Amino acid sequence: MSRKVVVLLVLIFTLPLLGSSGNPIVSNASAADSCSGNIEPIVWNQTLGRSALVPHYNYYSGYFGFGDYGDDGKKGRDHDTNNDWYIEEPREKTELNPEEEWMYMDWDRDSRLQTLTSNHHSTMLVGNDSIGALRVNLSEQHRTTVCITVQALNETNDDYSVDVYLMTTSEYQKYTELYYSSHSEQSFYNDVSEALSEISPEWRSLDFTGWRSYRDAHQYESVNEINFALNLDGPESYTPLFGSERWQDFYIVIDTWDNNHDNDAPAPGVVTAADVTIITTERSFILPNYTVAIIFLMMIVGMVIFPFILNARYMKAGLDVDNGLTEPGLVPSLEVDAELPDRGVEAVEGKSYPDISNDNSGD
Fold first, then answer.
1. What per-residue confidence (pLDDT) applies to 288?
2. pLDDT tier at 74 (50, 70, 90 boundaries)?
3. Is 107:281 a contact under the CB 8 Å cutoff?
4. Which of 30, 196, 211, 292 has its CA 20 to 30 A from that of 8?
């Protein structure tokens, strides 16, 4: 790899760090990290969406087969004569679950949100053993910083903490399936997920009960305050094997449920007040996605050709003539006089000797 290529790569990676305080790249980053800006009002289901998961409402009760109706047409722990299933009694809503019905009964509505390019603040009340989530449509042209502070409502608890996750739509759907299953008395799904909770990350994609946060990194467990930033490489979407392209929203999740992760916070037993601030900052310097592939391709090519370059230089070493001083000649012997350079006087060990290479007086 040539010296120019190395210098170019170093400049690419260090350019955002070389600017002064007047550099828009550096100033934008510092402004976003401060979690402050011009807050605009939220237009629900247009700029942001609000959803919740609560223990007293099971969205999948009919699908699990444990929420069927009895002979009297009412739900209850009655045996159904038409099958071997029996019915779970619905749980009652308590004062520790302040969520409104529209938050948990219509969480999967498919309304398309506007791309988030403005700053917003929201205070969410999340009940005990529940999930509170903000749905957003992040922009790849903006850096998004999320600042979250939580506290127990009307109570003081020094050991209070919750879990915070960032998920896409598909990741959030798997997460909700496990939540509803864990709150169903007859579902085996939660028992299997608990048994597989310590599966290693390299095998996690093969776990059918598994759920993960975005990039398998944005999970912050047992915290009461957290700030994180996110830069998207491009629009978050995927195309299934059969079907059209599907766009992914993002869910900022406040978790007060003791999920199947080993290091998550337990249910706090109180209502949580979560202050969520979202700051968006336009990105001034965006590298195209293909630059990563080009850089790695250049590194691989350099690793391949480097041995050949090293071998070529090794083979040429010692073959260059050094100012005529190493010209090939006959090996000195008793019959052949030594060939000395024609320089008149040679300096050997600080002494001068006359040039006698052409002196035949001794013959």
1. 74
2. very low
3. no
4. 30
| Confidence (pLDDT) at 202 | 67
- The type of residue at 115 is T
Closest CA to 134 of 45, 215, 59: 45
Contact predicate 144/116, CB 8 Å: yes
Cα separation of 281 and 137, whole Å? 15
Tally of domains in the chain? 1
| Closest to 79 in 3D by CA, of 66, 70, 90, 89 | 70
pTM of the model as a whole: 0.68
Beta-carbon contacts of residue 179 (< 8 Å; ≥ 6 apart): 53, 131, 257, 259
Q: Does a structural domain hold residue 342? A: no
Q: Tens digit of pLDDT for each residue in 145-178?
A: 999 999 998 877 778 899 999 999 989 988 998 8
* Residue 262 is assigned to a structural domain of this protein: yes
Whether pLDDT at 76 is above 50: no
CA angle 288-292-293, nearest 5°? Answer: 110
Rounded distance between C-alpha atoms, residue 161 and residue 152, angstroms: 9
Output the six-digit token pair for 177.
């399936």
Q: Residue 148 contacts by C-beta under 8 Å, 6 or more apart in sequence? A: 164, 225, 226, 227, 252, 254, 274, 275, 276, 277
Domain holding 250, by residue range, is 38-56+91-290
CA 92 to chain CA mean position, Å: 39
Describe the chain by its helix, strand, coil percentages, rounded to 5.
25, 25, 50
